[in-house]
Amino acid sequence: MDKIVLITYNPELMCFGHVLIYALDFDQKGYDVKIVIEGGAAKLVSTLKNPEAPFYALYQRVKEKGLIDVVCQACAAKLGAIDDAREQGLPVGGDLMGHPSMEAYLQGGYRVITF
After folding, report:
1. N or C end: fewer C-beta atoms under 10 angstroms in the chain?
2. Does the predicted model carry a pTM greater than 0.70?
3. Phi then psi for 67, rounded to 5 degrees?
4. Measuring CA to CA, how many Å separate 78 from each of 17, 28, 41, 45?
């Protein structure tokens, strides 16, 4: 099984929506896929808790499938989204100075794709 990690930094909602679509597509096709929410994208966990937000339904599907591996602890804290991430039951962490380690995914056999 191919292993893919999609690391999203971009705070633009349209870009994030594509990450959600790609993750669902990889998952449906049998890939082991994970999403890492980093950088400015961390604030989108607050935006997407609103049912009126664009991509809300996709975001819910991704969460239900457990495809979000981690939300960056440092970035979510800096952007005021850490409480929203935790309230949504999303894993929050960062073993590299408060940020998730890309190298750990490489060691785990994942191909890293960044957005």
Report:
1. N
2. yes
3. -85, -15
4. 22, 34, 12, 13
